[in-house]
Structures are given as structure tokens and as C-alpha cells.
Write a structure and sequence with these properties.
single chain, alpha+beta, 4-stranded antiparallel beta sheet, 3 helices, 4 strands
Length: 96
Amino acid sequence: MSAFFLFDNLEVTDPQKLDEYVQAVRPVVEEFGGRYRVVGGCATTLEGDWGPAYPVMIEFEGVEQARAWYDSDAYRELKALRQSAVKCNAVLIEGV
């Protein structure tokens, strides 16, 4: 069963750190079998009032692989870098 991390980047507080993160994160995501499915782009709210600012969605084979990436030593420093560069919401969604 697939799993998805959805990050909604609400505000960039340090563009230089964010750029450093973006340059380094993809190989670590791929190391854990993750694939980017959404990176920014226009989002149109059709129902409700949620409007993502800058969504990023990463697909993993399952929740175990997604958590292994998120909790890994390989991602730990990058996660801290991202958290120091943006204000965001992050959710892990179990898919089908």
C-alpha cells in the first residue's frame, strides 16, 4: 500500500537554506524508494477553503518506507535544514 508525504510550504524564512536543502534532498528520497509526485504548481481549490501555498508530495511504497526515510540518519540533518528554512505543514497519508 503506497504512502505519501505531503508538505505544504507556507512561508520561506531562509531562501539560501531552502536552496541548499533542495539541492541535497532528492538523492536521499530516492535512496529510500521515494518519488516526487508534486513540486509546487497551481492548485485549484474546488471544495472547502484549503488552499495549499506550495505543495510537495513524495510517494513511497508504504508507510514503513516513508517513516524509514523521515526518521533516517541520512535525512536527519536535511530535515533540520528544511525546518530552519520554511514554515510548513507536513502529513503522512496512507494510500491504496
